[in-house]
Write a structure and sequence with these properties.
Two copies of one chain form a homodimer. Chain A is α+β, with helices and mostly antiparallel strands. Chain A is built from six helices and five strands. The structure holds zinc ion (ZN) (4 copies). Chain A binds a DNA duplex through α3.
Chain lengths: 132, 132
Amino acid sequence: MKRRAELPNNLQLVLAVLEKKGHPMSAYMILDQLHGSSVRAPLQVYRALEKLISMGQVHRLESLNSFIACNDTSCATVGVTAFVICEKCEQVQEVSDNSVSLFITELAEKAKITAVKSSIELHGICGACENA
Amino acid sequence: MKRRAELPNNLQLVLAVLEKKGHPMSAYMILDQLHGSSVRAPLQVYRALEKLISMGQVHRLESLNSFIACNDTSCATVGVTAFVICEKCEQVQEVSDNSVSLFITELAEKAKITAVKSSIELHGICGACENA
DNA sequence: GTAAATTTGTTATGTTATAACGTCAAGGAA
DNA sequence: TTCCTTGACGTTATAACATAACAAATTTAC
Ligand SMILES: [Zn+2]
Ligand SMILES: [Zn+2]
Ligand SMILES: [Zn+2]
Ligand SMILES: [Zn+2]
C-alpha cells in the first residue's frame, strides 16, 4: 500500500475532503468542496474514489450512494466490513470483527455461491441521538 | 395485506413485470416494459414500487439500484432478509432465517443503535454459473 | 530517443430519482 | 345537496448520480 504522501494529487485532495468531513459524502458533494482546485469534473472524483476504494482508504455506502474515509485500520485485514449508520447524525461505525466475516462465509455456503463482494449496511438511530 | 386482485392498476402492472422477469430490474427497465400501458412516466413506476415495497411484495436491491419481486413468503414474517446475487446470471436468493435476524440484532447491540432498516447483499458467482 | 501503453482531463451523455403543480374523485360537514 | 377538504394520480420539468468517448499528457519498454 502506498504511503499517504505518495498518493497522486487528486487522490490526496479527495481523501482529504472525506477525512475532514468524517461523514458520508456523495461524489458531487466532494466535487463542490474541491472547487478552485485541479479537480473540476465528476469523473476526476469518481476515478480517485475508485482507486482509494481499491486501496481500502475509502468505502462506498451502497444504500446512500455515498463515500466515506476508512476509519478503522482493522477492516483492511479482515476484508469484510459492516457499516452502521445513524440516520440522524450521519455517524458511521465500521464493524469488521469475526462475527461479520463468519456470517458472510456461512451465508455464501448456504446459498452455494462464491462470494465476490458484500454490502452490509444497518440504518438506525444511535445512542447519542436517541437521548437528544 | 391486500390481495393481489385488489391492487390498484399501476401496482398490478409493475408487479406483473417484475414477477415475469424474476431478476432485478431498474425502474426505467420496468417503465420500458410498460410502454403502451397507462404507465408512462418514471414517477408512476417509483410510486408503485414504493407501495409494493411497503407491502413486502417487492424488494429494493441497494447495491444495484434495482428492484425484484419477493420470491420467499417467509421473508415477510421474519422482517430481515439477506440477498445473495449472482453477478453472472442475475439470479437472486432471499435468505431470511434466524441467523440473519440474529446477526442484525447483535450488530445493532454492538453498535448501540436502534435499527430502522438493514441492507445485506452478497455478490458472487452461483454454483450453476461456476460450472458453466 | 521513440513508440506503445497508461493515465489524466474534458466534454458530452446516460441513468436514476424527485420536485412542483394541476386534476380529479371520494368522503364528510353544513 | 353543495361545499370543502383530503388524498391519489398524471404530467412536466429538473435534480442527482455515474460513465462513454475522445484528446492530451505522462510513463514505460525497448
Ligand atoms: Zn474501513
Ligand atoms: Zn446519531
Ligand atoms: Zn422477500
Ligand atoms: Zn449464476
